[in-house]
Amino acid sequence: MSIDDKVRAIVKEFKAYVPGKSKEEIARNYGIDPEKIIKLGSNENPWGCSPKIAEKLMDEVSKLHQYPQPINPELMDEISKFTKMPVENIIVGGDGADEVIDNIMRILIDEGDEVIIPIPTFTQYAISAKIHGANIKWAKFDEENEFKLDIESVLNNITEKTKAIFLCTPNNPTGNVIPTEDIKKIVESTDALVMIDHAYIEYSNEDYDLTDWALKYDNVLVLRTFSKVFGLAGQRVGYGVTSKKIVDYMMRIKPIFSLTRASQASAITALQDKEFFEKCLNEGIESREEIYNGLKKFKQLEVYPTEANYMLVKVKNGMNSSEFCEVLLKKGVIVRDCYSFEGLEPYYFRVSIGTFDENERFLKIMSEVVE
Q: Which UniProt keywords apply?
C-alpha cells in the first residue's frame, strides 16, 4: 500500500494555496534587480513595521532557548486597550488569523455539518472547513452588482445543519464592506457562529467596525490581525474576539506555544507605537486613493471601490488575468492574479497599496501596458 492509499480523500481534492509572488522569486525568474521590483501583490504594509521593534527583538535573543508564555498578559492587555474589549473575550493565534479559523473549525465541525461561505473570498475558510468534515454551502458576492453581498444567497442556505458562516468585511479580494444591516440580519437569523473577518477593518470607516458585536451576540466571532496595517505579516500574529465560552473551548485545543517570543514582543511594541500606526494608516489610505484614481483613468480596466488596502481590477483589453500579470512581472511589477479565487472569472487581479514612489512607478508602467 502506497502513501497515496493512506492519505484522506478530502486532502486529495485540495489544490495547494497560491500565495502572492515574492521579490526574490521574480528576481530569479526574470533577471530583475530586486531593488527595482514593485511588490503590490500581498496586501502588506509597504512602510513595514514599527522601527522600535528591532530593539525589542534584540532583547529576546538571549531568551530564545526558553519557551514563550502561552498567554502573554502584556500582549493581552495591549490588545484589550486597542480594541476596547475585555481580555477574557480575546484569543490570540500564532499563524495570523488562520490559526483562529482552524481552531474554531476544530471545536465546531463534525462530519456532515454545513458552513456557509460567500465567494469570491479568502480561500482559507473553505480549506479549514472541508478538512474538518464540513460541507460547504456557497453564497455569493454578486459580480453584477459591484460584488455586493447577495444576502438572500446566505439566508437561503441556512439550515439546522449550519454550524458557521464566514463574512469577510472588507472582503478579500473585492475590497468592499458588507452593510451592517445585512450582517445584523444574518446574525439574528441563526444560532450558527457568524465569523466576521476584520483583517482590513483599520482601513475602513470606523462605523463598519463590528468588533463590539462579540459582546452583544453569543454567536459572533470577530477576526483581527497584525499582518496588515501593523506591518507584521512575517511574524504571524492574529486574534479573535468572541464570547467567553467560545474562548474557553478554543483554549482547550489551541496549540500551546504557537506565538514565539519574537512575535509576542513585536505585537506588543506595534500596539504601543501609536504614532507609527497612525502614520501607516493615514498614508495607506492616501496611497489607496492615489492608485485607485490613477487606475480609473485607463479605459481598458474596471476598478472596484474599496475600503481595504488593496483593490480589485478587471482586465478589459482582451487578455486574461494570467496573461496580463505576466506582462507586469516582466516589467518588475507584482500584483495578485485572482484566477485561484473561487467565484471569479479569469480576468481579475488585485493591487495592494505601495509607497508613493512605488505608486508613481507602477502607474507609469501601467500606462505602457493599457490605454
A: Amino-acid biosynthesis, Aminotransferase, Histidine biosynthesis, Pyridoxal phosphate, Transferase
CATH of the domain at 279: 3.90.1150.10
Closest C-alpha among 201, 193, 199 to residue 98: 199
CA atoms within 13 A on the CB side of 266: 23
Contact (Cβ atoms closer than 8 angstroms) between residue 249 and residue 277: no
Last residue of some domain: 247, 272, 297? 272
38 and 179 assigned to the same domain: no
Mean pLDDT of the chain: 95
Which of these, 82, 45, 8, lies nearest to 355 by C-alpha position? 45
- Grid cell of 314 as nine digits: 478587471
Return the pLDDT at 354.
98
- 111-149 confidence digits (pLDDT tens): 999 999 999 999 999 999 999 999 999 999 999 999 999
- In the numeric block, which cell numbers belong to residue 64? 530564545
State the Cα–Cα distance between residues 173 and 193, nearest whole angstrom: 23
Between strands 162-168 and 193-197, the pairing is parallel
User: Whose grid coordinates read 471545536?
Assistant: 107
Neighbours of 17 (CB within 10 A): 9
Query: In this structure, are residues 220 and 214 in contact, taking their beta carbons and an 8 Å threshold?
Result: yes
Q: Answer whether 157's CB lies under 8 Å from 128's CB.
A: no
Task: Find cell 479580494 and name the residue.
Answer: 173
Residues 260-277 have a mean pLDDT of: 97
Which residue's C-alpha cell is 514599527?
Answer: 50
**How far is it, in rounded angstroms, from Cα 277 to Cα 96?**
18
DSSP structure class, residue 341:
S
Task: Tell me, yes or no, whether 262 and 281 share the same domain.
Answer: no
